[in-house]
Structures are given as structure tokens and as C-alpha cells.
Write a structure and sequence with these properties.
It contains 21 helices and 11 strands. With about 550 residues, the chain is an alpha+beta fold.
């Protein structure tokens, strides 16, 4: 089965001429010979551009490869721009599996005899179908929200086995590329496939997605910026998730949004605010914000609100990453390239042995031509890509959390410019970042820290005298123990010196006795020398008397 799938993949690659994308000098003789051996599989798409051929090949190989292409389209640090743009066109629209089979999966997961026990008006025809799962509509039958419109997301049957098989083949192919491509070290095909494996397997766990949705909903509770549908945890499992059904306009449907009178400028700016709020306030961001997962509420067009779905991929940043990232952005706004270089070294993203002056010069070389354009024409996401590309020349390791951030930022910026082409993302983001930095480093940060830790300090304050007494008593015991250890160490060193001295003496007298014996000296001298040798050996094994 695996050999059959490998042949199918090879045939598809050759059918679309993907082998021609790799220079002949990069391919070992064995690969070139194998290509000649498969002479009956010609390239039937020579007239198409390379990026289009790659996109069509991935589409024909199925959903696992389509999602891989979608992920690659965000890695503009690895691919030429034309290919990355072409891969971004990949549509994850897949033929649905039978609704009756989905119903059986739901009943088995929830322990139901019939789906009608928990839901009314279950639609056997799916509302939408994707590579990993498909969605059916229904209404809740019980509980406080009885009668509420819901969607039931169901993982495709046997999808895990299919994904595992294709992932193993991808890993094999990545190993071959890493070994034979001269640029294999920079492209890191093994690491790319490893990253994709984690992302894809995370998406197979709907219990994880439900938890992500609950967290995001709590973060934006009562917010005018973003609405996250309610998840019904009692009906959610690893392969089934039940959540509130939303009624919004796809964010890519600009014509409908305009006809409804939506404030497009405000909508675009709120998209930027949603992104930076998730990243810098919550350290927990939706990392798959492509247009298919974002809708706009039909209510209050003058005060538009986003609706989000599909929470299988989220990103997180720790406190240090957030701070360094914000400082990097602000340094870029101010064109302080020295600061950018120093921040990369301070954060550990770039090794400390790197020459900061050279790194600063490289960043300036990349960024100064960009800043000659009006700010509204500068792509924030592409600046970040250029920065990471430059840093990678200076041994910057790939930061997984930054790859997700870069991907999300590219989505958000593209979305914002689609909604409102005049969007100046720099000017929209700068006040937010400056305010966040002031809150982190100014008097507000001190006040917030005191407020956060006050309950803990209040709880521990009555214990302070006891803790202080215990500490002083422990210190006294530690001093006595240290004195004992020091004394034992001195005695051990003294014993070792004793044994070494008598060991040397034993060796010397043994050598003397042997010479006396060989040269046939007087028996009394030989006997005396042997006696001294025996005494020396005895003394070397004897423990010296301790001294005070």
C-alpha cells in the first residue's frame, strides 16, 4: 500500500514536471537515472508557471498535501514570492463523506442510540466540508440553551491513518531532499515536515480545539472587536465538537459588506487591533485567521464586529518574547537598527558571538529601501519576513512561535488591505505598541504587579516571623554542617598527602632493595632495605592520626 502511494506521488510530481524545479546539478546520478527510467510519465504542463504546477500537483494529491501547501505559502522565507503567492490560492474544499456515516460517528462519540436524543432538526447534508472534518447543522434539545441553532463538527473517518501514511512519505522525501540539496540546510525540509505534522495532528483533536475556543471566548467576552461562538463542552469529544451557529458575512465578501454600509476603515483597523490584543494582551492568538475562518456580524454596520471560527491552531508567546517583539517593532518604527540588532542578541534569538555592527549593517541594507516608500505602501508582514531572513544569515534559529506569528500577521495585513486598501498598518499598530510598552515598563506595570501579588503577600505576611526564625535556625545548622564538611575535607587531603608521601618512599626503598639484591650487596644491607620497604608500605596504608 505504501509503495503504491509512493508511486502515485512520484507520478503526480513528474506529471506536473516538479522535478524540473530542481537544478540538474543538485540531483545525484541515481535520481536522474530513475527519472529516465520513468520515461512514460512526461511533463504534461510545460506551458504553466512553476508555482501553478506545484499548486495543481498538491491539489491532485489530496487534502493532506493541500494543507501542506497552505502551510508552505506562509513560509515566504523559504520560497520565491511567485510560488508562495500561487500556493496561497489553494482552496481546502473537499468532497463530503456520507451524512449518514457522520451521524453514526456522532452517536458513537456521544453514546447515543439516536442523534434525536440530543438534537432536533439534524441535517444529514453537511453545511461545509474540509480536508479534516465536515460540519452539520442542528438545534439543541436539552439544557438552558434548548432550541439554540448549533453546528456539529465531525472528524473524517479513517483520516488519521491516511494522514499518518502521507506524513511518513513526506518525512522520507524530506530526508532525501535534506541529504542531496545543496541548500538543504537552510531550507530545513525535515523541520518543515515536523512542524506540519504537529500542526495537522493538533487539528485532529477537537477537544483541543474546543478548549482553544473557550479560552478565546473568555478573552473577548463582551468585546465589540471579536465574537467567539459558544462551545457546548458536554457534547464535545476528541472527534466531535458542538458549538453555537453564527450568522455572519464572509470577510472576503467585500461587495456585500459595502452594500450593507459597513465602515470598512474601522473594520480593517479593528482587525489589526484584534491581532495585537491577542498577541500582547493575552499571549494567546488565533493562528489560522485566513478569510475562510473570519466573518463579520450583520448587526451594527457602523460599529462592525468580527466573528471567528476554527480554532485548531493557536499560538502563544512568553513574557520575554512579547517584550522583545514589541521593542523590535518600535525600533523599526523609529528606524533604530542598532537597537533591533542588540534585541535579537539579548533575546537569545541570535548567538552572542555574532558581530552586532555587521548584523546592524545587514538589517539597514534590507530595510532602508523599504522605508523610502510611503508608510501606507509598506507591508508590515513582509518587513517581518525580511528581518527573519536577514537574522537567519546570522545563525538565528527558527522560532516556532514566531513562524505562527508571521503567518498570522500576513493574513491580518492582507485582510486589512483587502477591506481598506489605504490601511496604514504601521500607524494603526504603533500607538497600541507604545501604550503596551508603557504599561509593561512604567509606573502602571509596578502598580499592576503590586495588585497581582498583594493577595499572596497578605497571606504570607503573618508567617514572616516564623519563616525568619526558621531561616536563621537553618542557617546556624548549615554553618555547623559546613564546618564539619570543611574539617572532613582537610582530613581527607591530609590522609591523601600522607599516603602519597609513604607511597613514594615505598617505591624508592623497593627500588633500592632490588638494586642491592641484583648487585649482591651485603645481606644485612639488603635485609635492612627490605625491612624499610615493608615499613613504608605499611605506613602508606595506615590512616594518619587526626590533629586538632
Amino acid at each position: 500500500m505504501r509503495a503504491k502511494r509512493l508511486y502515485q506521488i512520484t507520478r503526480t510530481f513528474l506529471h506536473y514536471g516538479l522535478n524540473e524545479l530542481i537544478p540538474a546539478k543538485w540531483m545525484p546520478w541515481s535520481v536522474r537515472l530513475a527519472r529516465y527510467g520513468l520515461f512514460w510519465i512526461p511533463n504534461r504542463h510545460k506551458h504553466r508557471p512553476a508555482g501553478e504546477r506545484l499548486r495543481l500537483a498538491l491539489e491532485s494529491l489530496g487534502p493532506v498535501w493541500v494543507k501542506f501547501g497552505q502551510m508552505l505559502s506562509t513560509r515566504r522565507d523559504l520560497l520565491p514570492p511567485d510560488i508562495a503567492l500561487e500556493l496561497a490560492k489553494l482552496q481546502d474544499k473537499v468532497k463530503p463523506f456520507p451524512g449518514a456515516q457522520a451521524q453514526q460517528l456522532i452517536e458513537k462519540a456521544l453514546g447515543l442510540t439516536s442523534v434525536d436524543e440530543a438534537f432536533d432538526d439534524f441535517s444529514v447534508t453537511p453545511l461545509a466540508s474540509a480536508s479534516i472534518a465536515q460540519v452539520h447543522t442542528a438545534r439543541l434539545k436539552h439544557g438552558d440553551d434548548a432550541g439554540a441553532d448549533i453546528v456539529i463538527k465531525v472528524i473524517r473517518p479513517d483520516i488519521r491513518a491516511a494522514i499518518s501514511a502521507d506524513l511518513r512519505l513526506m518525512e522520507t522525501l524530506a530526508g532525501v531532499l535534506a541529504k542531496h540539496l545543496p541548500d538543504g540546510r537552510r531550507l530545513k525540509p525535515r523541520e518543515v515536515v515536523k512542524e506540519y505534522r504537529k500542526t495537522l495532528l493538533d487539528e485532529l483533536d477537537l477537544a483541543r480545539e474546543a478548549a482553544n475556543a473557550i479560552q478565546l471566548r473568555r478573552n473577548f467576552e463582551d468585546s465589540p472587536l471579536l465574537y467567539i461562538p459558544k462551545v457546548y463542552s458536554d457534547y464535545s469529544r476528541h472527534n466531535v465538537m458542538v458549538m453555537e451557529r453564527i450568522n455572519g458575512i464572509p470577510v472576503s465578501d467585500v461587495e456585500t459588506l459595502t452594500a450593507l454600509g459597513v465602515d470598512m476603515k474601522k473594520l480593517a483597523e479593528r482587525g489589526v487591533e484584534v491581532f495585537f490584543t491577542q498577541v500582547f494582551r493575552d499571549s494567546f492568538f488565533h493562528a489560522d485567521m485566513h478569510p475562510g475562518n473570519i466573518f463579520v456580524s450583520r448587526e451594527h454596520p457602523a460599529d462592525p464586529q468580527y466573528l471567528g471560527i476554527d480554532f485548531g491552531i493557536v499560538g502563544t508567546l512568553n513574557r520575554e518574547d512579547k517584550r522583545y517583539l514589541a521593542e523590535n517593532f518600535l525600533a523599526f518604527f523609529n528606524r533604530d537598527y542598532r537597537k533591533v540588532a542588540e534585541l535579537h542578541v539579548d533575546s537569545g534569538w541570535v548567538p552572542s558571538h555574532i558581530n552586532v555592527e555587521e548584523f546592524e549593517s545587514a538589517i539597514r541594507t534590507v530595510c532602508e529601501p523599504i522605508f523610502n516608500k510611503p508608510l501606507a505602501e509598506i507591508s508590515f508582514g513582509h518587513v517581518l519576513v525580511n528581518l527573519f531572513n536577514t537574522a537567519r544569515r546570522f545563525e538565528m534559529e527558527v522560532q516556532p512561535q514566531l513562524v505562527l506569528l508571521q503567518k498570522t500577521l500576513l493574513y491580518v495585513e492582507g485582510l486589512g488591505r483587502t477591506l481598506y486598501p489605504q490601511l496604514d498598518l504601521w500607524q494603526t499598530a504603533k500607538p497600541f505598541l507604545e501604550r503596551w510598552m508603557q504599561e509593561q515598563l512604567g509606573w502602571r506595570a509596578v502598580l499592576r504587579s503590586v495588585k497581582e501579588h498583594a493577595p499572596y503577600w497578605t497571606e504570607k505576611l503573618p508567617e514572616m516571623p516564623t519563616l525568619l526564625y526558621d531561616y536563621l535556625r537553618t542557617q546556624k545548622t548549615h554553618v555547623a554542617q559546613q564546618r564539619q564538611v570543611s574539617t572532613a575535607l582537610i582530613e581527607s587531603q591530609r590522609a591523601m598527602a600522607w599516603r602519597i608521601w609513604w607511597g613514594v618512599a615505598s617505591g624508592a626503598t623497593l627500588l633500592t632493595s632490588t638494586l642491592f639484591w641484583v648487585t649482591e650487596q651485603h645481606v644485612a644491607m639488603t635485609a635492612a632495605s627490605c625491612l624499610v620497604t615493608v615499613v613504608s608500605i605499611f605506613m602508606s596504608w595506615r590512616t594518619p592520626t587526626a590533629t586538632k
